[in-house]
Amino acid sequence: MPIKVIGVGVGRTGTYSLKLAINQIGLGPCHHMEEVLHNQPAQVPLWAAAAKGAPDWMAIYKGYESAVDWPTAGFFRELYTAYPTAKFILTHRTPESWAQSFSYTIYRLLAERDQAPEELQEWLDMTSKVIDKTGFPSGLSEANLREAFIAHNEAVVATIPADQLLVYKVKDGWAPLCAFLDVPVPDAPFPRTNDRAEFWDRVSGKI
């Protein structure tokens, strides 16, 4: 089945919390970069091909009903064309807090990828290409990152029709998300996870 919910906010905007929330309200399984990390032999070549302009969305999202985070967020234009009736969610936060979080997690990981284990190199190479495509090439200052973050969000808003797009902060919890997706609000706390320490634990395979 085609995916129905597509998150187009970049990493470090609450995408892991959104993944857990989408699964909890019954619209999963939800694809996230974690899925790529845990299934590299199948996923990395598919995403590498997508970064070169030859995506196979059916193969990439086989078994999933939704997707968030990178690599997905780097292909919002292509995905809107491929899934024109899907609902899209743009997770965001202040550019200042995002640039700092990104700098000390994903951007640092990519900058130091020559120190990573051999088994992660193809994944990191693909990830770097996708993030570069999204507008965040290596070597940007925090000021430049803030500008690129704003530019990405503005491009999403300009591309996706307003009635199909939720601009969303995960700190706002269940109400706006469930209203947009037309599902009941769960009788459970909204999942809040993936701080910087948890990010490094996920990458290292500790969790």
Task: Give structural notes.
The chain is an alpha/beta fold and 207 residues long. It is built from eleven helices and five strands. The protein has helices spanning 15-24, 33-38, 40-51, 57-60, 76-82, 95-103, 106-111, 121-134, 142-159, 174-181, 196-204; strands at residues 5-7, 30-31, 66-67, 87-91, 165-168. Helix 3 packs parallel to helix 8 (121-134) and helix 6 crosses helix 9. The protein is globular, with a radius of gyration of 16 Å. The two termini are 29 Å apart. The mean pLDDT is 94.
Write the layout of secondary structure elements.
Blueprint: E1 5-7, H1 15-24, E2 30-31, H2 33-38, H3 40-51, H4 57-60, E3 66-67, H5 76-82, E4 87-91, H6 95-103, H7 106-111, H8 121-134, H9 142-159, E5 165-168, H10 174-181, H11 196-204
Parallel strand pairs: 1-3, 1-4, 2-3, 4-5
Helix pairs in contact: 3-8, 6-9
Summarize the structure.
By secondary structure, this protein is of the alpha/beta class. It is 50% helix and 8% strand. α3 (40-51) runs parallel beside α8 and α6 crosses α9 (142-159).
